Structure formats: C-alpha cells, structure tokens
Amino acid sequence: MIYTLLAVGFGGFLGAIARILTTSICNKLLPHNFAYGTLMVNIIGSFLMGMFFSYINSKELNILLKSFLSTGFLGAFTTFSAFSYENLLFLQSENYFHFIVNIISHLSLCLLAVWLGYLIFK
C-alpha cells in the first residue's frame, strides 16, 4: 500500500507541475476573458486518459504504474475544481454567455478527446 501511495503522490506532483505550466502557456497565448488554460488541461487530460485506459485494456500494466498515471498524474493535471470555480466567477459577474460556453466546451471537447484517445489503442 505504501508504494501505491508514493506512486500516486509522485504522479500528482508531476501532474500539478504540468498543469500549472500548461495553464500558464495558454494564458500567455490566449485572451484572459475566458478560462482557456483550464479547458486545455482538461481536454489534454481527457485525451490522455482515453489513450491510457484503451492501452491498459489490451495490455497488463503494473498497478503502481496505473496508479501513478491515472490517479496521480492525470488526477492532478486535470482540474474539476478550477472548472467549477471559474463557472462560479462567470455567474457572479453575470457573464452568462461565458458560463454556458465554458460548460458546453468542457463537456463536448473533453468527451470528444477521451473518445479520440481511446480509439488510438482500440
């Protein structure tokens, strides 16, 4: 059990660093009036999760590696809490357009990304 906890913790450490770097790059390249950074990490994370689970369905993978990648790295890389908070800010500022666009974008693009990722190893 201790090895699983360490694998998840180390994966989470790397995933959180990857998330802040990705979000920072997106925020520098794109306008700040929309939560592009959060959207990008969630799309990339969904794609990687689809690829990962498609791959492990066809291969036997070590439980520590599974825990490191899925719960650790991808769990820390993607962020539902930031998505929720950004939507709350849109509602509080009465920016209903961005609120709706953000929800629809996350749902549709992340589902598409996880499906495309899954198709890679199917």
TrEMBL record:
Kindly give the InterPro entries that the UniProt entry links to this protein.
FluC (IPR003691)
Keywords per UniProt: Cell inner membrane, Cell membrane, Ion channel, Ion transport, Membrane, Metal-binding, Sodium, Transmembrane, Transmembrane helix, Transport
The way its activity is modulated is described as:
Na(+) is not transported, but it plays an essential structural role and its presence is essential for fluoride channel function.
- Provide the transmembrane region boundaries: 34-56, 63-84, 96-121
Enumerate the subcellular locations listed in this protein's record, separating them with semicolons: Cell membrane
Q: Which residues bind Na(+)?
A: 75, 78
Provide the topology term for how it sits in the membrane: Multi-pass membrane protein
Q: Does the keyword Cell membrane apply?
A: yes
Top-level taxon in the UniProt lineage: Bacteria
Entry annotated with the keyword Methyltransferase:
no
Where is the major localization of this protein?
A: membrane
User: What's the catalysed reaction?
Assistant: fluoride(in) = fluoride(out)
> What job does this protein perform?
Fluoride-specific ion channel. Important for reducing fluoride concentration in the cell, thus reducing its toxicity.
Q: Which family does it belong to?
A: Belongs to the fluoride channel Fluc/FEX (TC 1.A.43) family.
* Annotated protein name in UniProt: Fluoride-specific ion channel FluC
